[in-house]
Amino acid sequence: MTDTKAVRGPDGGDALVAAFNAVGADYLFCSSGSEWAPVWESLARRHRDGEPAPEYLDLTHETVAVGMATGYGLLTRRPQGVLLHAAPGLLQGSMAVHGALLAGVPMVVASSESTTYGDGPGQDPGGQWYRNLSVVGGPHHVAQPFTKWANEAASLHTLPTMVTRAAELAWRAPAGPAYLNIPLEILLEDWDGREAKPVVPPGSTHSSPEEADAVARLIRESHNPVIVTETAGREAGGFEALVAFAEAWNIPVVEPDSAVCGNFPRTHPLHAGSDVGPWIDEADLILLVNCRAPFYPPSRRPAKARVVVIDEVPQRPHVVYQVLFADQYLEGGVVNTLRQLTKRAKDLDGDAVTVRRTAQQRCHAAESNAIASAEAKAATGTAEAGGVDPVLVAATLRRLLDGQDAVVVDETITHSRIVKRHLQQVDPDSYFYVQGGLGQGIAVALGVKLAARERPVVLTIGDGAFTYNPVIPSYDASKTYGLPVLIVVFNNRVYRSMNLNHRRFYPDGAAAQTGEWLGTDLHRLPRLAAFAEPFGMHTETVDTPAGLAPALERALKAVSDGTTAVVDVLVTR
């Protein structure tokens, strides 16, 4: 190959930037790799010449790049560009890409490999590809199991429209990441300037009026219906549409532990908690609204209820095993379907509605009293208890965030039920649970902040999950791009979920007899808040109930002043 020093014209890097610009990507989230020099040169030219381009974020870890794109997409619901480095970068970011797939976030992920290894004409791609970067078959084969669609852009002539196709596939239901392998030689090839056509939002799909009428009839004839939802709130307008639907028909709403976002106001009288168990035996109609895995174990069939599935794509292709027990499907867009069913809430059986409304009021009152009792008990804790009750942490956060239009990103495990129950989110797009493997939470929170700079963003995270995160690259991104968030660590000094499983499977085993619990102890870790100190961030460590609220208040003040704050709370359990 030759390595010419002549001034070069537009090349594949320009084609890729133009394509991402055409599909409406606001950002290119990049964890740098040597293949992206053509993209960097294109961006430099565009900045010099005042031409439009997505904003480029230079990030120092693949999980941070993908996680931020995920957080940004949770709020904007539009595909962004993610650039990783060859197969190693793709593998490093694969957990976060899989998390985006589970969360239903559209994005176009790209990385590159050489196809000529220096033996072809044109620019020399470099020997690193021949020696240790390439994988047999190409990285698009690596990406297939954890993306919605994976392919290779094998020609510069098709590159722009391949990006268009990837973005359109990523955006359409079920939304998720699409992947493109773009060989470095194509990025270096001269480009003739043909650009991709801008991507338009997906069209809407609808169930027929006859299908909606049939489901409305089932609801009208039922005496004890229930709605179960995991991700209705992920749809634009889904939160509001579900509230209107439930209120029109007076149907309780359960958000099971598998719910991944806020779908219904937790304080609403029709909110029926997180336990779907009693309804499996008692309900005569179960309406699964965007609910991928409602029953556990999957074979736990409802005793007498008919099951209606309301979901644009009810059978999730990426779910290995999925049991819905559906008697009827409404497969149009969920928001429109809920609105159509709301319009049909007429000629209801007044006696049946009164009976279930009264029963739900009793249940809601009991749950409200239980929450208040748990919080009162937590507030009486003392320092001698060895820290702060996690219920008090969640309840204090709720009080301090009240009226602030905050967004909470949650990456706790053993405390996730407490966080959901006591934070009591009431607004759309105010709560998201990080999907897939642990270690993405800080990046997802930063991406949410990027999409909602005017809103306070809080990450609740366990100490085990915190240690999985690429903390230094995340703090670097926070400081570099002015993305202040509050990180609250629920620190029980143990991998509690691992320990609980060991105790559950072997209650009388050798570990129980000797106290040798392996794979769980985190007491050896240093102060977790201290990692933020070199970045000039606000840090606090709290180990008493009396110190909790003042520390969180100071941290929120620091965030409002523009710096990330980390509050490491030593919790009692």
Description of the molecule:
- Pfam families: TPP_enzyme_C (PF02775), TPP_enzyme_M (PF00205), TPP_enzyme_N (PF02776).
- One of its GO terms (cellular component) is acetolactate synthase complex.
- It is built from 21 helices and 17 strands.
- It has 573 residues and is of the alpha/beta class.
- The protein folds into 3 domains: 177 residues, Thiamin diphosphate (ThDP)-binding fold, Pyr/PP domains (Rossmann fold); 156 residues, TPP-binding domain (Rossmann fold); 190 residues, Rossmann fold.
- The longest helix is centred in the middle third of the chain and has 30 residues.
- The radius of gyration is 25 Å and the shape is globular.
- The mean pLDDT is 93.
Q: From the 3D coordinates, which CATH architecture of the largest domain would you assign?
A: 3-Layer(aba) Sandwich
The CATH fourth-level homologous superfamily of the largest domain: Thiamin diphosphate (ThDP)-binding fold, Pyr/PP domains
* Structural classification: alpha/beta
For the termini, the CA-CA separation is 63 Å
Give the strand order of the largest sheet, numbering strands 1, 2, ... along the chain. Answer: 2-1-3-4-6-5
Low-confidence stretches: none
Q: Tell me the count of domains.
A: 3
What about the largest sheet?
6 strands, parallel
Radius of gyration: 25 Å
CATH class of the largest domain: Alpha Beta
CATH fold-level topology of the largest domain: Rossmann fold
- The helix fraction, in percent, is 40-55%
How many distinct beta strands?
17
Strand content: 5-15%
Shape: globular
